[in-house]
């Protein structure tokens, strides 16, 4: 008889192509098609076996039935059997001797962000993710197991379908905090709907096959592929969220604008006190404002952030088509459109992504895997950050309490005096504090990006078992960055400049060629060995062409050809690396596994005399559950690993003297000559070599009760030796510093991941995953220096806080002014001031900007067709210096400045404003806060519609309500978000400046499978 039916996933109700249906006791088998359907000829009393990787096998007696539909239950223990490791090599989980965490793509597509990396926050032990609120396409800071370079790049290597990605951070904000933009990073270009799974390789042994590029960890991204069979599969995912600002401010509402307890008495008086909240009691009477108009002297500033920032909307639509090619392979194509109307006024992001994967088989020996992604992207008006110059958040945050921020928009709504091309309507006495509406609508910026990432991987397996593989991969990006400051911009007028403009064209390409050779061996029935030998050639080329200048000859014509004082510059960087690598994997039964790898890299960016370096690794796994047979234990494993990897210099041309051209010189004889410059202020080091990361790790994994309970523990020590750091030298040499291999840094860490299914019935299921991290660092050596300075705040903000690495302490120490103290530690009060004297204050350390503790807990509940999941995460033990709070203190906005407003202080009889100003300058440590926090990060409520309601035309339909950044449960930072920063650079971690506030997103996600 003929038996027909359909196979679906018991959890998602999705149809399952490729399931093997076998008649028990025979070799007769058929696969399900693209719609999960099967048809097989079998006896009426036969038994059918349904099997699929990652699912529990099921046996069903036919019992004379012609139609049998089956639901297969996902098996967590089987899903984790295969893990993607370095170079895309898949291994059984039990064979891996180091820590690897896999995140499935489905978990990051519903409550998404523009950059999928932000969705990893709180999910993975040992991985610190910090998204920066810096506009619609901001960069993300990802640190794995603490920093590996005290002054250089600490971002992990991202690999997409075998293609190492260029992930340059396009931020234009300097580490000294003097303003600029965040132009985003490379990893944000990936569409979450295309991601199948993410493997995070944390330890050095896990990343050693990547050599110098694996020093900071590796994130391997595998996109979805077509499924075998002959059918066509269509999937549609639509996601819309509204986005609104989160206002963390809680300023005083007792006193308003003015000086010496009095409101402004005229328009000019009001204009001069727009950054002063030291006026009189807010009594509702009429008082002058900056534009000469009288308005009620009332507390109206609460809600200014919500008035200025609009309600944003983010719509993403993705359509994918997958087609099986019978036994010869499969293909998948997707197109995704993202349209983000940011909550930041006049800013947004548009991104169109095309993704294609094709897997082909040619006979039994040859396979070809093709992967390509093309992205075209437009980022509009990324906002200026940190310093007041061009910062659109400065005004809404700091205007006096009687000012409604909308009055700064002016009659034209864009902060100008006369239309779209008029001068800035500057309500501040300081021209370097920009009208926020002018900053949003008149300071123009754009980033146009075109990016292609592609690879072709061919593998031929000989009948003898030997294989040879070749992969070619390329990542090409072309960016055009435009920035315009129009005529009438206040701070330019103050400098005698009538507007300026820059156009920068950035081309980057990275070519990788890999040739591999290997074989799998078996000795007897208990021993196996797998060998791999490979070589890599990498070439990276970067070209920066910049044209700009100031003073527009023709008003309103924003073109570099219209600049009266133009300039051009060209910079090219060429890097080349050559590598050979090998690995040997040994196993004994299913009990003992051992892996040894080695990679030798040749660098073009380091010392010409010694440019090759060998990086070894050793790892082992002992599956003791195979030996002890403990009841209800599915897996018990011990891990042990050691590796030595390295890090190259962040930029080329640092080993030899370089020269450039800074302009031209005309001596008056009719000729024009170039002006040459030597170097970049750093002494070249012909002996420069890569840093070393030596790491030792032990760990264990245990699964119980068919994976109803599982946990993974890792303990490690990481030591960075020969870190490349700038050493300060005598300025009379003509240089600022010298790059030397003198830094030593050590981390001790523990990572715990616990998960399982505490409760499960036919209709209800509760899954929980919990992770925790402890990573404590210590600076061991700085080449004889006691410390080195890192990023700093701008001193004209009233702050002199900055970061240092100090020998004997944790990295990223916050340094701020501390008042003079007596022998008992009491603050010395100057009798004339009635406050500590700022001129005798001394810098002091106030703790590290790193959070040594972190963790997250993710719960998922499913009842019939309904699901509820939520993520709570937190970080603990770090510190943050808040420039927002010191400014609010100096301006009289802080509630801490309410006491004694009507008093005079000291023998000098100084005002409350001067008194509190002395305290702000002298005791800056009061603005260093605990950075510990707990956040309710994500909430998803979903419903899976029964597929039988659509009569086979729709194979899956899920509608979800999603919310990201739900609320903060615990924090210690007044008026700011504890994660606030003005750049994604590690050199600013622990320093806060007035950037864009964070936002909350609420919306819907619809997924349809046809």
What does this structure look like?
It is built from 10 helices and 50 strands. Residues 76-80 have low confidence and may be disordered. The radius of gyration is 31 Å and the shape is globular. The strands form 10 sheets. The chain has a 22-stranded antiparallel beta barrel. It has a 5-stranded mixed β-sheet with strand order 10-15-16-13-14. It has 1010 residues and is mostly beta strands.
Annotation keywords:
single chain; 1010 residues; mainly beta; 22-stranded antiparallel barrel; 10 helices; 6% helix; 48% strand; globular
Brief account:
With 1010 residues, this protein is mainly beta. Helices cover 6% and strands 48% of the residues.
The proportion of residues forming helix, as a percent range, comes to under 10%
Task: Give the overall silhouette.
Answer: globular
**Percent of residues in beta strands?**
over 45%
* Gyration radius, rounded: 31 Å
Quaternary structure type: single chain
What is the CA–CA distance across the termini?
A: 30 Å
**Low confidence ranges:** 76-80
Mean pLDDT: 88
Structural class assignment: mainly beta
Supply the number of helical segments: 10
In this structure, how is the largest beta sheet organized?
22 strands, antiparallel, barrel
Q: List how many beta strands DSSP finds.
A: 50
């Amino acid at each position: 008889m003929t038996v027909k039916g359909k196979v679906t996933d018991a959890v998602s109700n999705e149809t399952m192509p490729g399931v093997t249906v076998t008649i028990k006791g025979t070799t007769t088998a058929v696969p399900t098609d693209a719609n999960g359907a099967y048809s097989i000829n079998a006896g009426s009393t036969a038994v059918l076996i349904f099997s699929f990787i990652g699912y529990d096998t099921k046996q069903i007696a036919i019992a004379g039935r012609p139609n049998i539909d089956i639901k297969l239950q996902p098996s967590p223990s089987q899903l984790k059997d295969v893990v993607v490791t370095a170079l895309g090599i898949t291994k059984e989980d039990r064979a891996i001797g180091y820590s690897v965490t896999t995140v499935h793509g489905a978990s990051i597509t519903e409550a998404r962000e523009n950059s999928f990396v932000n969705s990893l926050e709180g999910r993975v032990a040992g991985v610190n993710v910090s998204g920066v609120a810096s506009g619609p396409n901001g960069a993300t800071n990802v640190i794995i197991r603490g920093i590996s370079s005290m002054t250089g790049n600490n971002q992990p290597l991202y690999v997409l379908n075998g293609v190492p990605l260029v992930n340059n951070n396009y931020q234009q904000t300097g580490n000294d905090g003097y303003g600029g933009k965040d132009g985003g990073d490379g990893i944000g270009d990936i569409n979450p709907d295309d991601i199948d799974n993410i493997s995070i390789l944390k330890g050095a042994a896990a990343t050693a096959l990547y050599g110098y590029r694996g020093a900071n960890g590796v994130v391997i991204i595998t996109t979805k592929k077509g499924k075998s069979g002959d059918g066509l599969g269509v999937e549609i995912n639509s996601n819309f969220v509204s986005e609104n600002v989160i206002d963390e401010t809680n300023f005083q509402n007792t006193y308003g604008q003015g000086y010496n307890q009095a409101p402004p008495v005229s328009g000019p008086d009001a204009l001069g006190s727009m950054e002063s909240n030291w006026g009189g009691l807010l009594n509702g009477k009429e008082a002058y404002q900056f534009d000469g108009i009288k308005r009620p002297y009332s507390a109206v500033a609460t809600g200014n952030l919500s008035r200025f920032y609009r309600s944003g909307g983010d719509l993403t639509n993705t359509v994918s088509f997958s087609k099986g090619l019978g036994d010869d392979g499969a293909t998948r194509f997707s197109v995704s459109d993202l349209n983000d109307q940011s909550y930041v006024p006049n800013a947004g992001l548009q991104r169109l992504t095309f993704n294609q994967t094709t897997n082909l088989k040619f006979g039994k020996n040859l396979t070809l895997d093709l992967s390509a992604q093309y992205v075209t992207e437009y980022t509009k008006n990324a906002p200026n950050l940190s310093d007041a110059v061009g910062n659109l958040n400065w005004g809404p945050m700091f205007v006096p309490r009687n000012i409604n921020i909308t009055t700064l928009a002016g009659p034209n709504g864009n902060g100008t005096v006369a239309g779209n091309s008029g001068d800035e309507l500057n309500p501040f006495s300081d021209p370097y504090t920009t009208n926020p509406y002018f900053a949003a609508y008149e300071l123009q910026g754009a980033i146009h990006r075109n990016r292609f990432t592609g690879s072709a991987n061919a593998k031929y397996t000989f009948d003898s078992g030997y294989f040879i593989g070749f992969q070619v991969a390329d990542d090409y990006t072309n960016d055009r960055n435009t920035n315009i400051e129009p005529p009438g911009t206040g701070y330019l007028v103050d400098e005698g400049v009538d507007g300026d403009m820059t156009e920068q064209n950035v081309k980057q390409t990275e070519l990788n060629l890999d040739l591999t050779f290997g074989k799998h061996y078996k000795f007897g029935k208990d021993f196996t060995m797998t060998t791999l030998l490979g070589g890599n050639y990498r070439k990276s080329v970067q070209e920066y062409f910049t044209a700009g200048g100031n003073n527009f000859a023709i008003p309103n014509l924003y073109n570099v050809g219209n600049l009266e004082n133009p300039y051009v510059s060209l910079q090219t960087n060429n890097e080349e690396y050559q590598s050979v690598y090998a690995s040997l994997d040994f196993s004994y039964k299913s009990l003992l596994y051992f892996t040894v790898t080695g990679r030798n890299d040749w660098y073009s960016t380091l010392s010409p005399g010694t440019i090759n370096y060998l990086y070894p690794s050793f790892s082992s796994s002992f599956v003791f559950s195979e030996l002890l047979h403990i009841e209800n234990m599915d897996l018990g494993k011990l891990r042990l690993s050691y590796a030595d990897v390295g890090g190259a210099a962040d930029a080329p041309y640092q080993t030899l003297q370089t020269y450039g051209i800074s302009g031209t010189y005309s001596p008056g004889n009719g000729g024009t000559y170039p002006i040459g410059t030597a170097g970049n202020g750093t002494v070249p080091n012909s002996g420069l070599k890569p840093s070393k990361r030596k790491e030792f790790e032990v760990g264990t994994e245990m699964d119980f009760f068919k994976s109803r309970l599982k946990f993974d523990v890792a303990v490690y020590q990481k030591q960075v030796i020969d870190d490349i750091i700038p050493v300060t030298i005598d300025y009379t040499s003509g240089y600022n510093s010298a790059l030397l291999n003198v830094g030593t840094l050590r981390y001790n860490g523990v990572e715990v991941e616990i998960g399982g299914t505490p409760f499960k019935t036919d209709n209800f299921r509760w899954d929980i995953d919990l992770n925790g991290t402890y990573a404590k660092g210590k600076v061991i050596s700085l080449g004889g220096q006691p410390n080195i300075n890192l990023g700093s705040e701008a001193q004209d903000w009233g702050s002199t806080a900055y970061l240092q690495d100090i020998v004997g302490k944790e990295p990223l120490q916050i340094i701020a002014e501390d008042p003079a103290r007596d022998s008992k530690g009491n603050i010395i009060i100057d009798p004339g001031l009635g406050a500590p004297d700022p001129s005798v204050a001394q810098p002091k350390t106030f703790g590290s900007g790193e959070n040594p503790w972190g963790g997250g807990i993710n719960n998922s509940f499913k009842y019939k067709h309904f699901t509820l999941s939520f993520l709570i995460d937190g970080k603990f033990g770090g510190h943050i210096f808040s420039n927002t709070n010191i400014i609010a203190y100096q301006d009289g906005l802080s509630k801490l400045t309410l006491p004694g407003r009507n008093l005079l202080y000291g023998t000098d009889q100084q005002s409350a404003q001067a008194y509190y100003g002395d305290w702000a300058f002298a005791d800056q440590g009061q603005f260093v806060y605990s950075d510990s926090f707990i956040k309710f990060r994500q909430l998803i409520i979903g419903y899976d519609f029964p597929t039988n309601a659509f009569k086979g035309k729709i194979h899956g339909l899920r509608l979800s309500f999603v919310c990201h950044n739900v609320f903060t449960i615990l924090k210690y930072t007044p008026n700011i978000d504890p994660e606030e920063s003005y750049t994604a650079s590690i050199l600013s971690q622990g320093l806060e400046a007035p950037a864009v506030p964070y936002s909350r997103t609420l919306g819907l996600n619809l997924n349809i499978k046809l």
